[in-house]
Amino acid sequence: MTDVTFSGSYVAPPRAKDWSGIYGLIFVLAVIPYLAPEALPWAKVFPDAWKVPLSVWIRDGLNWLVKDLSFGLFTFKEMTRAMAAVMAWPLDLAKAIFFDGVTLGDVHLPRLSWAGVILAMTVWGWALGGRGLAAVGFVSLSYIALFGQWNGAMLTLSMIVIAVPLGIGLGLLLGIAAWRSPRLRQALVPLLDLMQTVPTFAYLVPIMFLIGVGPVSGIFATVLYAMPPMTRVTMIALDGVAPELAEAGLMAGASSRQILWKIMVPSAGKGLLVGVNQVIMLSLNMVIIAAMVGAGGLGFDVLNALRIANGLGPGLETGLAVVALAIVLDRYSQAAAAPRRGLDPARRRLSLRLGLGLLVGFTLLSVFVPVLEELPKGARLSTGAIWSDLVRWINLNMFEQLDAIRTFLVLNLLKPFKEFLIGFPWPAMLLLVGAIGWRLGGRRLALLVVALLAFIPLTGMWERGMTTVYLCGISAAFAVVLGVLLGILGAHSDRWHRFLENMNDTLQTLPSFVYLLPVVMLFRVGDVSALFAVVAYSIVPAIRYTDHGLRRVPPNLIEAAAMDGCTRRQILFKVEIPYALPEIMLGVNQVIMMALSMLVVTSLIGTNDLGKAVQMAITKAEPGDGLVAGLAIAFLGITADRLIAAWATARKRKLGIP
């Protein structure tokens, strides 16, 4: 029972804002262009005279940089080419070690032996994480070798070992600078938000224009893409260090540099390792995407599988090789940061030396036994024929059913929704989004989301933008519904939870190109294939956040509901889901972000959205169009993020959740 104290006078609660006028205006702006097109001719088609030629300005600016800008002793183009040459030297060294060896006249010095790498990683895995990690390393690397993916994996790895240290180092330094300077931090956080929402392909367009085509461009793009998480994690980790530690160092006479590198950074080590792990995984993801600009490696093999008739088998094998490589990098980096306890340090050092000896020994032996440098084709395995036969059987026996599903989705869902959004008057859409922003977060949020959304018609991208919204909206809806259902199963069953965790880990490490292969084989190119690919790619956050949110519901709430006689279904829908809804909505937010990023990839199979504009910009080397389309996708993502975050914050406040 809550005690209520009455004061001498009654104060009425603040009156709620009357939104009927705004909603009425939205309705009028939405209806008049249909009933009387001549009344508001500019409402459905954004006038050309109002458009801002931003893509032309960007293209002209980059052309000026490349062709005209000079610093006296050298030009801008000479500077970028010199940077590329400097980057090419360590890349060539890494490629010689991992990929192709070194040839000096008639003498060939082999690359690292595949057998030596497998055995060394197995021994190191045992030293760092025990039998489990050793088994993971042995099985994963053996799969890569036996299924003929070793060359692509080593070329990919040679780019990663260059990009990851650069991403970690630059992200750490930038994060430290922002931590020390509140002004820099205030300016940097929105930029980091933008960089993390811009689709991966958009990074390739200006880099390719400035640096050229090839693996070096892929490394520059990878560093830019993977650096923001490290910067953000560095700021957060340093914020979490107790101020008393710095004060103690200051009292001991340490300089500011000594306090930073001897006290603050080591104390923030656990948090920084999270950023290191993110840089590794994002670098692997971006190196795969960089195959679009000639980076080669596993990404090129997956991309090539899309171009051949029976590419499902080779594409899946290469995709699983990416998964295997990602698992090795992820698990070993975590184990190196926190080695297992219980092993004598002397034995650990001995094991590490043994692994190094095996690596060097088998590599030297491969000079005389070439089979140890590269596994012969006759010893390799392949499931390509099995997958080809399966696709052929499905097409022969299930074509009518699959075509019926495709036709039903196109005629009854995709086409109507697409036509509705493309034809919806843009002023009404801006006003509607602004009204939602105002109700959720006030005037500042409303102005922000309206400004972000207005960027799309102002740059002439309205039709492509609404096509993106339609594909993203339907795909995200399917992913959320299915993901929430699976998350509910995982939250109430430990067996389902373990199965879903393993499934999610696999889905998140598969390269985005791989998702296109089965859907194209089944549904051909077009929006239906894009829909299924985006759902499969973006479903993971919905599952994880739902599972996690439901598991965090306080047990006393569930017990109280059960004691009141609620059924299991009532407890789920009246207690658990309402309490976990803010966290579930954060999962919805992540689903939307991943769907937007995947739509750029699905442009390869026939969609005509903003992702297609980015992909065409890469093909035609049009940096202006690519950057504008990439910014439009990022602004859609930021708009959804801000609206959902505002709703989740308000909901948590209402429920009293910290």
From TrEMBL:
GO terms for biological process: choline transport; glycine betaine transport. Its main location: membrane. GO terms for molecular function: amine transmembrane transporter activity; carnitine transmembrane transporter activity. It comes from the Bacteria. InterPro entries: MetI-like, MetI-like_sf. Residues 153-333, 465-644 form the ABC transmembrane type-1 domain. Keywords: Cell membrane, Membrane, Transmembrane, Transmembrane helix, Transport. It is found in: Cell membrane. PROSITE patterns: ABC_TM1 (PS50928). It is a multi-pass membrane protein. The keyword Manganese does not apply. The chain crosses the membrane at residues 20-36, 114-147, 159-181, 201-226, 272-296, 308-329, 350-372, 420-438, 445-462, 468-492, 513-540, 584-606, 627-648. One of its GO terms (cellular component) is ATP-binding cassette (ABC) transporter complex. Belongs to the binding-protein-dependent transport system permease family. This is ABC transporter permease subunit.
